[in-house]
Specification:
The protein is an alpha/beta fold and about 300 residues long. Helices cover about 35% and strands about 20% of the residues. The chain has a 5-stranded mixed beta sheet, sandwiched between helices. Strands 11-10-9-12-13 form a 5-stranded mixed beta sheet, with helices on both faces.
Length: about 300
């Protein structure tokens, strides 16, 4: 069965055709129109034009889509904010459309053909510019009301006394303070390092200094490991996930993920000697390939 797939980000729309084996072909990329809904729809229409209208379009999007109302929220694509995107696209494109969060698609792809194969419960972890996630149970994503399941990066995990040393209770875009999202991704580690040491460094030098045993970088990373492992250990204890593939820029930092994995496994209730937090096997095509696995 052929499925059309799109991975919609704030800069580009990646497009491909997926066959019955979920192999991607006919890949294209066009800029994402972010300010005008008609132009946004037209961009997708240009990609699916020429395909039989019986072929569905599955979309991974850098945002959330409420399953009941269909309304979409995407910070980087204001033209679709609070728009019932699936309904609009089905009407305008005259074909069936499914829309899902890109972190859910990443987790689904890892569960079906990545490191999560053979695991009943998979929690995909995004450590990129920020923090995200997706829960897959028996091959299906758990969406939740408002499409917000899997958002482990939000909630007041950081308080004045929660961390060794000093720690920033930074305001989060969700409206709370002290969310893991404020320190969790690459920019978050940079922010944490600046707060602790008054030194502005990019993520790569911080991690290089950490690997070389520099004391300030060690303090930064140790605080990061402490808080992030607390959040992920809670996820494991609540969901029973037996594997946590990681996507996003920090997925390529093998030593950092190994340290995070060890810290998480030291904090969960069950005894587990197998690696739990591991790099995803298929991050480069997670949005497109993950969208191909979506079911209505």
């Amino acid at each position: 069965m052929v499925i059309l797939c799109a991975d919609v980000g704030g800069s580009y729309i990646e497009f491909a055709q997926s066959d019955a084996g979920h192999r991607l072909t006919h890949r294209q990329r066009v800029p994402t129109p972010t300010q005008d809904l008609d132009l946004f729809v037209a961009a997708l229409a240009s990609l699916v034009d020429g395909y039989d209208r019986a072929i569905a379009l599955h979309i991974a999007i850098a945002g959330v889509c409420a399953p009941v109302t269909g309304r979409t929220r995407a910070a980087n694509i204001p033209c679709i904010y609070d728009v019932p995107l699936r309904q609009v696209l089905m009407q305008r494109l005259q074909r069936d459309v499914l829309v899902a969060n890109d972190a859910h698609c990443f987790a689904l792809n890892e569960a079906m053909q990545g490191v999560g194969q053979g695991h009943d419960i998979v929690f995909g972890v995004i450590l990129g510019t920020g923090v995200g996630g997706g829960l897959i149970v028996h091959g299906r994503p758990v969406i939740g009301p408002g499409g917000l399941a899997g958002e482990w990066g939000h909630g007041p995990f950081i308080t004045d006394s929660a961390l060794p040393g000093r720690a920033p209770m930074l305001p989060c875009q969700c409206g709370q303070q002290g969310c893991l999202d404020t320190i969790g991704g690459a920019r978050g580690i940079e922010r944490l390092h600046t707060f602790l040491h008054g030194e502005e460094l990019a993520i790569r030098p911080i991690l290089t200094h950490w690997e070389n045993g520099e004391s300030r970088a060690i303090e930064t990373v140790n605080i990061w490991l402490d808080r992030m492992s607390a959040g992920l250990a809670m996820v494991v204890n609540v969901t029973g996930a037996s594997i946590m593939p990681v996507g996003g820029g920090l997925a390529h930092q093998a030593r950092l993920l190994h340290a995070l994995d060890e810290k998480v496994r030291s904090r969960i209730l069950r005894q587990d000697t197998a690696a739990l937090v591991v790099p995803g096997a298929l991050p480069a095509e997670s949005g497109l390939a993950g969208a191909s696995w979506l079911k209505s």
